[in-house]
Amino acid sequence: MPKQENIDRVSALKAKLEQCSIAVTADFTGLPTNEITELRRRMRAAGIEFTVVKNTLMNLAADAAQRPQFKEIVQGPTAIAFGYDDPQAVVRALSDYLRTSRSTLALRGAVLGNGAPMSPAEVSRLATLPSRPQLLASLLGQLQAPIQRLLLVLNGPLRNLDAVLQARLRQLEATGSGG
Asked: Can you list the pairs that 49-53 forms with residues at least 24 positions away whose Cβ atoms lie under 8 Å?
C-alpha cells in the first residue's frame, strides 16, 4: 500500500507536468547541499520551479499525465526544472548557472510542451537561440524589407524627375540673369 505522502507527491508532479511549457532534467550527483540551495534560489527568482524527484514517483506521474516521453529523461539522481511561461528562460537560467558557477550539475534532457524528449545538445542549442522578442523583431524586419524596396523603386522616377526639373530651373535662372 503506497504512503499518502507519495500519492500526494505523484498528483502534484502530474499537475506540474500537465501545466508546464518545458521540463528540464539534470543529474545533481556530487552537488553539495549549499549549491543546490543556491540553484533553487536563482531558479525561484527567475520564476522557475526546481525540485529533486524520485524516479519511480516521476514515472508514475508521467503515466498519470499521459506524457510517457518524460520517462526517457529521468534516470539516476534527478532534479527537474519546471517552466510555465517562456521555455527558453528556463534553459537560459540553467545554462547561465552552469557557466557562472562551474557546477557539476549535468543537463540530461528536456521535454518542450507535448513534444519528443530533447538531448542535452539540443537543450544547449535552445539556450543559444535569440529570444522571442528578438525573433519577432527580425521577422518583422524581413517582412518590411520588400515593401521598403518597392517604395524606393517606385519613388525613383519621381526623384529623378524632380532632379531634372531642379537642374533645368537652375539653368534657366542662370541664363535669365546673365542676359
From this structure: 49/16, 49/81, 49/82, 49/84, 50/79, 50/80, 50/81, 50/82, 51/79, 51/80, 51/82, 52/28, 52/77, 52/78, 52/79, 52/80, 53/13, 53/78, 53/79, 53/80
The confidence band for 163, taking pLDDT boundaries of 50, 70 and 90, is very high
Domain containing 136 equals 130-179
Q: In whole angstroms, what is the distance from residue 24 CA to residue 117 CA? A: 10
89-103 confidence digits (pLDDT tens)? 888 888 888 888 777
Give yes or no: residues 83 and 16 share one domain: yes
pLDDT digits (tens, 9 = 90+) for 108-145: 889 888 888 888 888 888 888 887 788 889 889 888 88
Place of cell 524516479: 55
Global pTM value: 0.69
| Other beta carbons within 10 Å of 77 | 14
Both 76 and 137 in one domain: the answer is no
* Cα–Cα distance measured from residue 128 to residue 69, given in angstroms and rounded to the nearest whole number: 24
CATH assignment at residue 119: 3.30.70.1730
- The C-alpha cell at 116 is 519528443
* 81, 90 Cβ separation under 8 angstroms: yes
